Backbone:
């Protein structure tokens, strides 16, 4: 459930009508709902054992306003770069609630994370283990480490967001896990604390999660028998969300929590979770204005002022996002089938193909739903388009949490070398 709905005939975020924001902020803009972020966080945390650490996956939405909203609820952060680590800290998230994932951590990032005193490193390979050991020893520290194990479980999601099969670059193959833990135990700069797993994103079936977590549970017992101190299990993120409301809904957090509790029973480990999409996706919309309605021979194109540079998911993953007009349609109004496209010069700049919508005119506003995760964070300035602004709403209040760059600011990022001046 989210807090976007029609109020007095206008699609609103909580108590703020989005057409008013469009006037004040200009389009396109992302709009996030605090109450929705908080609700999703609360429901997820209530489904899990009380001492679990919920480390919001900053890659899904790294806006400081969003991070601070979640941090105040008790969330930690799952980060994959020095930049994300600094953002989480800038939003006031304590270092001892931050986990650092990713296959390519550099020495500089390791130094930063050790200096901050983060909760744990999720290490993805033996070379990374060696590098972290060297950095930690040079700083006179020990790095708290889980090894990310690749359980070779197919999450049955889109190929581009599958991470837990042996074909992908992620984690240490399950069959090599004992050996890798044996190596880690000999490194004085490394303190083994647990096991990490993450099998993919937008997972809509509990079975692959359960299969992966069972493998992790068995491994925990084997590793303990080998003499390793396994006190934490990081079970990753990945729980899917509904993108189409009347489709079969993904498992709800309560069912996920019950499964996790059952599978990890008796292991006596602190659990860590890294949800991103589940918290943020349906807490955000992208508001855009119709520029033209273009009638082609084969199709009618609704050309809007947001582009694939603002929201790349449909182009990259063929993802479905519901689109609603900001002005509430009269019940039973005729529908027109549109291809909803942006202004970017690529055929893939398509938000929705053959979508039936109430008739729209130039100047009308629409909201592209489920855009709060992997939306603004994946934006670019392709076609020299300043990415959409970001707005956070809380009840009747709203604030611009990231302003749209001006063309001048965008241009000022480039530098003309001396030999071309004059
Ligand atoms: N932890 C790790 C180690 C991850 O790699 C990811 C996502 C997460 C947690 C958070 O997963 P979530 O709960 O959000 O599913 N850009 C793609 C999604 C890429 C996900 C990558 N990893 C999209 O727009 O669908």
Residues:
């Amino acid at each position: 459930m989210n807090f976007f709905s029609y109020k007095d005939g206008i699609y609103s975020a909580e108590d703020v009508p989005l057409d008013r924001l469009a006037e004040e902020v200009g389009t396109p803009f992302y709009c996030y709902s605090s109450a929705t972020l908080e609700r999703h966080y609360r429901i997820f945390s209530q489904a899990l054992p009380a001492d679990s650490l919920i480390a919001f996956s900053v890659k899904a939405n790294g806006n400081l306003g969003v991070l601070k909203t979640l941090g105040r609820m008790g969330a930690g952060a799952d980060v994959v770069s020095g930049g994300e680590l600094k953002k989480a800290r800038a939003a006031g998230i304590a270092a001892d609630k931050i986990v650092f994932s990713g296959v390519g951590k550099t020495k500089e990032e390791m130094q930063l994370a050790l200096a901050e005193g983060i909760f744990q490193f999720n290490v993805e390979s033996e070379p990374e283990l060696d590098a972290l050991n060297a950095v930690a020893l040079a700083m006179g520290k020990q790095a708290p480490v889980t090894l990310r194990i690749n359980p070779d479980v197919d999450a049955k999601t889109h190929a581009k967001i599958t991470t837990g099969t042996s074909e992908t670059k992620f984690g240490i193959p399950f069959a090599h896990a004992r050996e890798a833990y044996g190596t880690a135990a000999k490194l004085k700069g490394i303190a083994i604390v647990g096991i990490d797993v993450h099998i993919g994103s937008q997972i809509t079936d509990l079975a692959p999660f359960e299969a992966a977590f069972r493998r992790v549970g068995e491994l925990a017992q084997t590793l303990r028998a080998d003499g390793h101190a396994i006190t934490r299990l990081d079970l990753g993120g990945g729980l899917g969300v509904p993108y189409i409301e009347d489709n079969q809904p993904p498992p709800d957090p309560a069912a996920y929590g019950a499964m996790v509790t059952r599978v990890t029973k008796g292991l006596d480990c602190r659990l860590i979770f890294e949800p991103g999409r589940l918290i943020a996706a349906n807490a955000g919309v992208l508001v855009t204005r119709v520029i033209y309605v273009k009638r082609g021979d084969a199709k009618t194109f609704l050309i809007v002022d947001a582009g694939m540079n603002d929201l790349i998911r449909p182009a990259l993953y063929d993802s479905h996002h519901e689109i609603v007009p900001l002005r509430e349609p009269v019940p039973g109004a005729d529908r027109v089938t549109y291809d909803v496209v942006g202004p970017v010069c690529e055929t893939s700049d398509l938000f929705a193909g053959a979508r039936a919508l109430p008739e729209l005119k130039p100047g009308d506003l629409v909201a592209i739903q489920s855009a709060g995760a992997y939306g603004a964070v994946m934006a670019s300035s392709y076609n020299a388009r300043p990415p959409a602004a970001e707005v956070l709403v809380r009840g009747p209040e709203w604030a611009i949490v990231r302003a749209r760059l001006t063309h001048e600011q965008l241009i000022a990022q480039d530098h003309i070398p001396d030999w071309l001046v004059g």
Q: What stands out?
A: The mean pLDDT is 96. The longest strand covers residues 284-295.
